[in-house]
Write a structure and sequence with these properties.
With about 90 residues, the protein is mostly helical. The chain is built from 4 helices and no strands. The chain is elongated and about 65 Å long.
Length: about 90
């Protein structure tokens, strides 16, 4: 098993690590190992960007802004129908 030492940890950071480890019923060592394990389950920024760059482009028929605008109009129309007891035309 390898050894990692972290020197010159600021007192406030050490206190917070101790507090959080205590909350979890863990030692600082086990708590820090848990943080490292969690970090390593997430791809690094570089790895993630490389994966995204390998994806095939997706063709869309309209811009994201147009899709959001359309969805908002549909939502507003539905809200108007529900609050006015019928009628489908949206007031502008």
């Amino acid at each position: 098993m390898s050894i990692i030492q972290v020197k010159n940890v600021p007192p406030g950071m050490h206190s917070e690590l101790r507090r959080r480890a205590d909350q979890e019923g863990m030692t600082i060592r086990d708590y820090v190992l848990k943080l490292i394990e969690r970090d390593q389950r997430v791809p690094s920024k570089r790895d993630w960007l490389e994966r995204v760059a390998e994806l095939e482009p997706v063709a869309v028929s309209q811009s994201a802004a147009d899709m959001v605008r359309e969805a908002r109009e549909e939502r507003d129309d539905e809200l108007m129908r529900r609050t006015e007891g019928g009628g489908g035309a949206r007031r502008r």
